[in-house]
Amino acid sequence: MTPTPQPPARTPVRILVCDDHAVVRAGLLALLHSAPDIEVVGEAGSGEEALALARKTAPDVVLMDLQLGEGIDGVETTRRLRAEPPAPHVLVLTTYDTDADVTRAIEAGATGYLLKAERAEDLFTAIQAAAQGRPALSPPVADRVMSRLRNPRPALTPREQDILAHLSRGLPNHAIARALYISEATVKTHLRRIYDKLGVDTRAGAVAVAKEQRLLS
């Protein structure tokens, strides 16, 4: 009797984990080690460490958190990883799902964007997809992306651009009001509109998105 041919073994995906929380990293490593087709080649607690390890280990995929404490954040780390050959694919794994976070990560070159609430099976599937260069998005993130494509945000008005420019210089509301000869209440009203249009809820987020989208002259 002729034996049934077995499918060839799949080459494990080489993965580097980058998260600034040691406990989170430990949990992820334990989870990833349980997957037979994933090989963890390193762990990093900062963006700078991830860049150095990636050069040494040449991972297929970097599992990237966005907020990394001191030093460069996950978005900037992603941008630098993707700019250095052989560029690994980057799969963001984070708790943050604002439009600004998603946009910045994807524009920096992230292949996928997952939330930490995802099931282990979905994470494994996303890692395999990312290794092949295919996008992988958590359902809430995919909904946000589709919503933005269907309903593009209105452009900033000249006054909103002025306020955003002053905001990027670190000026508080009262200083912006004085510089533009308007009331502080008017500044706050414009800021709320700017936040809505950029999909953020903080001053730092507004400035970050403005820089990413080249809204600042």
From TrEMBL:
Domain HTH luxR-type per the UniProt entry, residue ranges: 149-214
Name of this protein: Response regulator transcription factor
Residues with PTM 4-aspartylphosphate: D65
Keywords of the record: DNA-binding, Phosphoprotein, Transcription, Transcription regulation
Gene3D superfamilies according to UniProt: 3.40.50.2300
Domain of life: Bacteria
One family name in Pfam for this protein: Response_reg
CDD domains given in the database record: LuxR_C_like, REC_NarL-like
SMART domains recorded: HTH_LUXR, REC
Residue ranges of every copy of the Response regulatory domain listed in the record: 14-131
Signal sequence, start to end: none
